[in-house]
Design brief:
- This is MOSC domain-containing protein.
- There is one protein chain.
- The protein is built from eight helices and 13 strands.
- By secondary structure, it is of the alpha+beta class.
- The strands form three sheets. A seven-stranded mixed β-barrel has the order 1-6-5-11-8-7-13.
- A hairpin with a 3-residue loop joins strand 3 and strand 4.
- Helix 5 packs antiparallel against helix 6.
Length: about 280
């Protein structure tokens, strides 16, 4: 566990492809899929650029989170960016999301819901009309379609995607195993598998939960939203390494409602910790 914690500043979703997402009173996470009623929910990739490139890729970008401190930072440079403005589902405050290691689990909701399934169930909202979601591939099983696939990554972690891992997340891992992944995505899939195994074996925390898979890769659409904003969220450090600041992407481990004001608990993976990469 980590001593770090924060709060939910805002939640957003949209059932259509738009750059920004309207704020809501609550959103509902669905394990292994994403945000109920959100266009980016699904087992396979849903972001249009990723679908065009390879629709068989696993959706490790089910939930997009941004720290509100980024909006404070760019406001000082003249950019008015509201919560949901860059398309995130969850806006947090008090957590350095970008500094979290790959495989970190974020748990949402009051502490009393952690060990009380009844309390967690009471927080679940009525179903929302869901956006269409991509189906999990059934061919290929846990066998990689080529080198760089997540089949070897999951196996190398000591995780059996058909055993300890919860049923909903298993479909995402099966999609990863059936696809040909680049190295960064394979490492992200492995981290998701390990986190899902930890969560399934722990089994004592019923709160809605997301495992952080990696960083959002900012694109030119940001400049169409606010001209010049892209350079504030995509740059280089002193050593020339790419710095991405447009939030993090994750996979839903446990479903449930998330509302503004909810506490967020940070659960770090076992060390050694690995920095986030783009997914």
């Amino acid at each position: 566990m980590s001593g770090e914690s924060g709060t939910v500043a805002a939640v957003s979703r949209n059932d259509a492809y738009t750059f920004t997402k309207p704020n809501r009173d609550e959103i509902v996470l669905v394990a292994g899929l994403g945000v109920e009623g959100d266009i980016h929910a699904g087992v396979n990739v849903r972001h249009r650029s990723r679908v065009r490139a390879d629709p068989s890729q696993p959706n490790l970008r089910q939930v997009h989170l941004i720290q509100a401190e980024l909006f404070d930072e760019v406001a000082g440079k003249g950019y008015d960016v509201p919560a949901g403005g860059i398309g995130e589902n969850v806006t947090t405050r008090g957590i350095d999301l970008l500094g979290l290691p790959r495989g970190t689990i974020l748990r949402f909701g009051p502490a009393e819901a952690a060990a009380d399934g009844t309390a967690a169930e009471a927080r679940k909202a009525k179903p929302v009309a869901a956006a269409p979601v991509a189906a999990a591939p059934v061919a290929g099983g846990s066998e990689s379609a080529g080198t760089g696939g997540a089949g070897s990554a999951v196996a190398g972690s000591g995780t059996d995607a058909g055993a300890a891992v919860g049923e909903p997340v298993r479909a995402v891992l099966a999609a990863a195993a059936a696809a040909t992944l680049d190295e960064a995505t394979a490492r992200a899939a492995e981290a998701v598998a390990r986190a899902a195994e930890r969560d399934a074996r722990g089994g004592g925390d019923f709160r809605a939960a997301v495992v952080i898979a990696g960083l959002r890769n900012p694109c030119a659409q940001i400049n169409r939203f606010r001209p010049g904003l892209l350079k504030e969220v995509l740059g280089q450090d002193a050593d020339g390494a790419v710095v991405r600041k447009a939030g993090v992407m994750g996979v839903v481990l446990r479903g449930g409602a998330i509302r503004p004001g909810d506490p967020v608990a940070v659960e770090l993976p076992p060390g050694p910790h690995e920095p986030l990469e783009r997914v």
